[in-house]
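User: ok so my PI wants both of these folded by tonight, can you help

Assistant: No problem, let's get them done. Here's the first:
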Amino acid sequence: MVELWVQDESRVGQQGTKTRVWCKKETRSRAVKQGQFTYAYIFGAACLEKDLAVAIIVPYVGTTIMEKHLVEISKHVSQGKHAVILIDIASWHIVKKLSVPKNISLLPQPPYSPELNSCEQIWQYLIDHYLANRCFDGYEDIAFSCVEAWNSLVSIPGKIKSLCSRSWMTC
């Protein structure tokens, strides 16, 4: 039996995202924008069948971080099943020295096709609902905010499935 997972990472930080804000009619809205360059990365993965998502929050990206993320995903693959994870072709995803757990296979998507990876909707939801228009004091504040945002998202029943489901993504 196979479980289909989607995986991606997103950068969150002081050079954050501005989004629309509400303001009184005939007034100009204000949104914050920091000038510092401190970031955290969310490595996230979702299994639509199980309405489950797992993540790690890290200060940088690379092969060792990807390996840690795959180990975390591996822990959540159902007993007796094998996970196929849809990934983009970032260098740390496809490097030959990447150690992949035995219950996981990686399925690279075509280059320049982020629309095929429905994990992108998770990032957009986190930005829209939790992480945009904010100032952060430093890495710890960013990481804490990412953890809070992720935990809030995954605590909503059915949200992962509704954000990430695609008609062609069935096993």
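One down. Here's the second:
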Amino acid sequence: MAALIACGILWRFILPPGTETDSARRAITGLVYTLLLPALVLNVLWQSDLGADSIKIALSAAAGVVAGLASAYWLLRRFPVPAAARGALLLAAAFPNVTYLGLPVLEQTFGPWARSVAIQYDLFACTPLLLTVGIMIARRHGDNTYVLENPLLALLKVPPLWAAMSAVALNVAGVDEPAGLQVFLHTLANAVVPLMLIALGMALRWEPKQGRRWPMVVPVLAVQLLLMPLVVWGLAALLGLHGELRTAVVLEAAMPSMVVGVVLCDRYGLDTGLYAAIVTVSTVVSLFTLPLWYGWVQ
């Protein structure tokens, strides 16, 4: 996995002629977001055992996001932070990279069954909160000249969410997945993990001037990588999640800041450079904190 992320990082230094890193990354993530990830979601949730545990996963995920937002807001009140930077910091603290990094980590750690945990954690809680509460935060702290979009309309434009709703409906109705369609979806789904990790590496960047902002970055890292998984761990235990399922949920909460937040920062005029720096630093630090959380929860 680290080697695939490194391939994305190296892309910036060995660009093919006529290409540009951010454009190539947007093309890859667009392909994953609109075609490959929906295929994975449909294939996994159609066959998953959906029940009380799904509700517990969603509640744990939502509690983690809310706790991250509340803690970051309280901590940032102690710093004279510009509005654009504050909005970027709030998004970075509250929304973990549960799909682009979380899904590969869970699948490699626990096996194919854990893909369902990552998908439910994201699509049943994180994505709806991001496209409602997250957009409202971005609007409030960003440039008001940007196009205003109804959060509910933004939510309806998420292809993986439509795939999830379709899969849940087919699952609950007891419809069997045709063998030919299963093979087709599985083939598309196999491309998701490597492309996600390469795109993640392409998104990581650090500007030297961001070094002066460490007093703002460190609290965000503490909230994202320490406090949020601790809250989710406690709630998951209280709700009755046990064993590897609980460990997988806590690891999702312990993921670094999500890459997709860069898009919101660009769209609503937040501090994109600061956000990208937090994604980079939190991803590097998570290489050390994720194994610790795995050991503690196990």
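The chain has a mean pLDDT of 86. The chain has one domain: 22-202+212-297. Good luck tonight!
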